[in-house]
Amino acid sequence: xxxxxxxxxxxxxxxxxxxxxxxxxxxxxxxxxxxxxxxxxxxxxxxxxxxxxxxxxxxxxxxxxxxxxxxxxxxxxxxxxxxxxxxxxxxxxxxxxxxxxxxxxxxxxxxxxxxxxxxxxxxxxxxxxxxxxxxxxxxxxxxxxxxxxxxxxxxxxxxxxxxxxxxxxxxxxxxxxxxxxxxxxxxxxxxxxxxxxxxxxxxxxxxxxxxxxxxxxxxxxxxxxxxxxxxxxxxxxxxxxxxxxxxxxxxxxxxxxxxxxxxxxxxxxxxxxxxxxxxxxxxxxxxxxxxxxxxxxxxxxxxxxxxxxxxxxxxxxxxxxxxxxxxxxxxxxxxxxxxxxxxxxxxxxxxxxxxxxxxxxx
Length: 362
What we know:
Shape: globular
GO molecular function: ATP binding; protein serine/threonine kinase activity
Strand order of the largest sheet: 1-5-6-4-3-2
Keywords: ATP-binding, Cell membrane, Kinase, Lipoprotein, Membrane, Nucleotide-binding, Palmitate, Serine/threonine-protein kinase, Transferase
Helix content: 25-40%
Region (Disordered): 333-362
InterPro entries: Kinase-like_dom_sf, Prot_kinase_dom, Protein_kinase_ATP_BS, Ser/Thr_kinase_AS
Radius of gyration: 22 Å
Family: Belongs to the protein kinase superfamily. Ser/Thr protein kinase family.
CATH architecture of the largest domain: Orthogonal Bundle
């Protein structure tokens, strides 16, 4: 029995949790599927179709009767089902209301007994997390240019939530596992079950129970439960750090002092001479040094301990877009002459010095 509307009707963001369907069509709509349809689409939720799993439940690849490939999330309800139901309703609400090219598209949902399922567009390249950390996959490492483009797309999605949504939306669960990639490695933010509407009026924060993933949570939120837009900025800084270093936000397999990525990176962030030592070795030195310095500077600002010192997402988007464009032109200029930071620098000639001076002046 569904508490939403019937198949093909709009999921009204004004009427979620009621039996009254929204008469409006178009952007704020999602389809209601029967459990039988989704069981058929996923071939009985077989393990062979399992493409993701976490605290929320499992995600299966499926194919609708129309032939469309989809991702079907089967939510895991807790003891009394309240938390799972809250995340289900929140996600339907958010993704029915919010539409952007860098947010994953909600196609539909299913409520059947104690089953809560969500149907999304299928993202064929999986998550950013898998591309950065899954060493068993036979694929080329993400290039520096691709990493910057992913950062730009994720930032644009977050900018939409913070600046275009009214009231603004605090994502609260920004991490590499929730950044999904399409065939062209364009990123989309996913999993909005923990999202919260941001403060309005004279309010400076939203007080809420601490949720999210350890290693990505802003320190002030983890300690006090006070949630702000700047909490997302800190999490975004951690993702930037993962893109630069190729290390996980938290990795218990490493030495104790290296398990927290933010704590491990602090000595490098403050010393430009050491920056090349923190870069993902899979890049093999194929990145513009000046671009790296600027990317690290943006990351360090996002990771400021005091929330008011962190930049706005709008400023971050502008900065990253500039870096992405500069990175392309820099790589084009250097071509195959780019050296690994592990190599000894070649002594500069007078001509080289003059060229560097001209570039700096330009």
